[in-house]
Amino acid sequence: MSDREEVATIVVFSGELDRALAAFNIATAAASMGMEVTMFFTFWGLNVIRKERGSGGGKTFLQRMLGLLNRGGAARLPLSRLHMLGGGKAAMKVLMREFRMPSLGEMISLAGELGVRFIACTTSMALMGLTEEDFIPEVDEFAGAATYVEKASRSAINLFI
User: Using one digit for the tens of pLDDT, what is the confidence trace for 39-56?
Assistant: First the structure.
């Protein structure tokens, strides 16, 4: 097996619960199979790895407004479909418990324990007025697209979620 076959990269663009769960499910499966896994969080995907009580962003008026409307935190993410003012999300959480599927917070911790690297996109952070202090401690690196492209160029698996 070459080095290329042992590396997976995942761009997490979505800040929606179901898509984040899918990204972490694939990341933890790949890591448990011995692959080197990097998750690159950009734009709305940054909400997945933001602290729930972060600054919310904001140096300019528009960044502060965006921070108020786009609050982060794994527990706050909506569903991509059938959210129904939170009813769909509540039903999803019941089903996840019933089928013993870990929560997103548990999957984030598991990914960290398995050595999955988390990179927060600095370009998106600047756009949204976010700083390193706005993110959970599991974030390994703050970097731009060039860092992601370098890692993706060595990857056998490269996903955009």
Answer: 999 999 999 999 987 666
What phi, psi does 8 have (nearest 5°)? -130, 140
pLDDT of residue 122: 98
Dihedral sign, CA of 79, 111, 23, 51?
positive
Task: Give the tens place of pLDDT for each residue, 119-135.
Answer: 999 999 999 999 999 99
* HEC per residue, the chain: CCHHHHEEEEEECCCCHHHHHHHHHHHHHHHHCCCEEEEEECHHHHHHHECCCCCCCCCCHHHHHHHHHCCCCHHHCCCCCCCHHHHHHHHHHHHHHHCCCCCHHHHHHHHHHCCCEEEEEHHHHHHHCCCHHHECCCCCEEECHHHHHHHHCCCCEEEEC
